[in-house]
């Protein structure tokens, strides 16, 4: 495959990851600001976050995507079908301002969350199917960068658009972006055809599919990394805004530093991190990226504990964003490496469910630490968590690196 064609596919997958991420970020992380202005209680805003629950069940959504064939352009047809459902939901939620209709707004947000979570499965199954293994680390870094940019767009820009141009306009923009991303897949769907299964070969059961994932060389060691490498630093990023506010920093400055500068830094280091993995080697990159995360959290913890001042706080926040970008790029790239081509959807769905469950559980524990031990205790606990993740990564780096190298070698052969 030529380099321009590969670049075009990478940008296409990056764009679709971006437009699938924006609606959930806008509705669940950006909208609470508007909700508060319209009299929603803290409990109501907190319960609204339950609309993110479908992400935990991605492994179940992957089953029909893997097994129910929709013609020869199997995964592409699934992606187009689910994107059409999202467009219909955008029309429903954008018809009128629902900020005072709590139940209907939650129901439609929950439905959009299901559709976006489900559509992510055929999209990234196509990335595994279409892209050479040598390009999948880059695809992971682009996906990570897209999520950071999605946080900027969904958590900031769309709120400004709604404030100035009305309730409907963000949904029109999101719908147009999704439609623009779907058109190339409609044209390229013939590439998504999978080889027909021989009639005498039985289709493995769902449980056998999942067991087969863990039976891959290095898969159990990789699962430990998947569960531990990102959630602790991700939880720190979640609590950075309230931390800075409580330390006396103005709201607008916090939004600019964390929301914009931090988001751009994370996106940039996602791309840099993905590019460096082939140079460093997977095993060395695993250790160095987690060491960077450990150092950035230690710096933030010392800054808050010793009260070094605003400058150090900003610098440590940027370091957290940079290391988080590099780690997330590595995680997404290796997720593709451990996704078998014959089980694109089921393997990807299983891994992202494990990742999401850990990513949602750690912030809850961090919140308990915050309430009982203040920021010093919370940051110390999360830094200890990254230290444990670093220790695990040090022990399994060789096995995970060998497995990734074996995947590349098998494709080359």
From TrEMBL:
Subcellular location: Membrane
Transmembrane helix is among the record's keywords: yes
Gene Ontology cellular-component annotations: membrane
Organism: Thauera linaloolentis (strain DSM 12138 / JCM 21573 / CCUG 41526 / CIP 105981 / IAM 15112 / NBRC 102519 / 47Lol)
Transmembrane segments: 45-63, 75-93, 105-128, 140-161, 167-188, 222-240, 255-274, 286-306, 312-338, 350-369, 375-394
Molecular function per GO: transmembrane transporter activity
InterPro entries per record: AmpG_permease/AT-1, MFS, MFS_trans_sf
Cross-referenced Pfam families: MFS_1 (PF07690)
Key words of the record: Membrane, Transmembrane, Transmembrane helix, Transport
Membrane-protein topology: Multi-pass membrane protein
Name of the protein: AmpG protein
